From TrEMBL:
Protein's name in the database: DNA mismatch repair protein MutL
Organism in which the protein naturally occurs: Algoriphagus sediminis
Function: This protein is involved in the repair of mismatches in DNA. It is required for dam-dependent methyl-directed DNA mismatch repair. May act as a 'molecular matchmaker', a protein that promotes the formation of a stable complex between two or more DNA-binding proteins in an ATP-dependent manner without itself being part of a final effector complex.
Residue stretches making up the DNA mismatch repair protein S5 domain: 209-327
Recorded GO MF terms: endonuclease activity
Location of this fragment in the whole protein: 1 to 339 of 610
Family classification: Belongs to the DNA mismatch repair MutL/HexB family.
Superkingdom of origin: Bacteria
Alphabetical UniProt keywords: DNA damage, DNA repair, Endonuclease, Hydrolase, Nuclease
Length: 339
């Protein structure tokens, strides 16, 4: 029998990889926002049209890219963020897989404009379904703009699979909020179909929380803080009386990366025991800082899951920091609850 195995052409390999990285407009937005933060931006603007189905654009004032790097950034496994496998154990940037731009460009029409500080002219690149359509010099400001147009234009089955505009918009806003919460020192804006949804000025975390969730959160926040050699916790928890039956306002960030963890949620929830009904969920925005060598974020391509070397300690420290915060604000279980 003749040999039949072949390496897949890049465009197809990219399209397959894209299935993991880009499920919907919001997953692309997350990647683009993280790239902007990694590039050291202090101002990040997001523009979406048609709940991201027509356009997701992120404009930053970060480092920008040279002409050569601009083209290179769309290659798979092309990254400026890690160089050797050891770096995987001390990741400080959001990105490191070098997959996002290649994946996005495989399943949409991308227009990149970028200029780095030390170059006179900028670069414009247009790529459609991994195919380079245009690369030319342009006049541009320092920084980068990536516009992702017509997501899944070449994968009709996946395009049809996208949800209604309100649902896709909700996902976009969720991603936006997560990144905006973890970087209160960066200014962010979000425009949808030419309407401004958010304009967030740089400030303190408490100001950012109020900017995102509204003025009525101002006096609902209790600061939480705990320092151990292994782990630092800081952030805000909501007062017990403001706990809600619905979830969605619970945020954990580990080394500034948003993560989901029912285990850690449980730690906070039990600290509120006796103060809220069992079916209620307290508001919290909590930042955990831990030596990157004690965690593994390379569990899943979207990097919202994490493995801790010692999750019991993390649980205990988190729980005690929330208990202390509640205690310091004289929020202790009432007698009725303890009998
Ligand atoms: P990763 O972020 O994992 O490195 P990406 O595909 O998201 O992979 O990006 C590839 C590379 O392109 C990055 O490593 C970075 O060097 C460059 N890049 C992407 N977005 C930006 C940006 N907004 N500003 C500057 N450089 C960028
Ligand atoms: Mg990236």
């Amino acid at each position: 029998m003749s040999n039949i195995i072949q390496l897949l052409p890049d465009a197809i390999a990219n399209q397959i990889a894209a299935g993991e990285v880009v499920q919907r407009p919001a997953s692309a937005l997350k990647e683009l926002l993280e790239n902007a933060v990694d590039a050291g931006a202090t101002d990040i603007q997001v523009i979406v049209k048609d709940a991201g189905k027509q356009l997701v654009q992120v404009i930053d004032n970060g480092s920008g890219m040279s002409n050569v790097d601009a083209r290179m950034s769309f290659e798979r496994h092309a990254t400026s963020k890690i160089k050797q496998s050891n770096d995987l154990f001390s990741i400080k940037t959001f990105g490191f897989r070098g997959e996002a731009l290649a994946s996005i460009a495989a399943v949409s029409q991308v227009e990149l404009k970028t200029k780095s500080e030390d170059e006179e002219t900028g670069t414009l690149i247009q790529i459609e379904g991994s195919e380079l359509k245009k690369q030319e010099p342009i006049a541009a400001k320092n920084g980068t703009s990536v516009a992702m147009k017509n997501l899944f234009f070449n994968v009709p089955a996946r395009r049809n699979f996208l949800k209604s505009n309100p649902v896709e918009m909700r996902h976009l806003v969720d991603e936006f909020q997560r990144v905006a919460l973890s970087y209160p020192e960066i200014s962010f804006s979000l425009m949808q179909n030419d309407m401004e949804i958010y304009r967030l000025n740089p400030g303190k975390l408490s100001q950012r929380i109020v900017g995102i969730f509204g003025k009525n959160y101002q006096d609902k926040l209790i600061p939480a803080e705990e320092n151990t050699p292994h782990l630092k916790v800081k952030g805000y928890i909501g007062k017990p009386e403001n706990a809600k039956k619905t979830r969605g306002e619970q945020f954990f960030f580990v080394n500034n990366r948003y993560i989901r963890s029912s285990y850690l949620h449980h730690a906070v929830h039990t600290a509120f025991e006796g103060l809220i009904q069992p079916d209620q969920h307290p508001f919290y925005v909590l930042f955990l800082e831990i030596d990157p060598s004690h965690i593994d974020i390379n569990v899943h391509p979207t990097k919202t899951e994490i493995k801790f070397d010692d999750e019991r300690t993390v649980y205990a420290v988190l729980r005690s920091s929330v208990k202390q915060a509640l205690g310091a604000h004289h929020v202790v279980p009432s007698l009725d609850f303890s009998i």
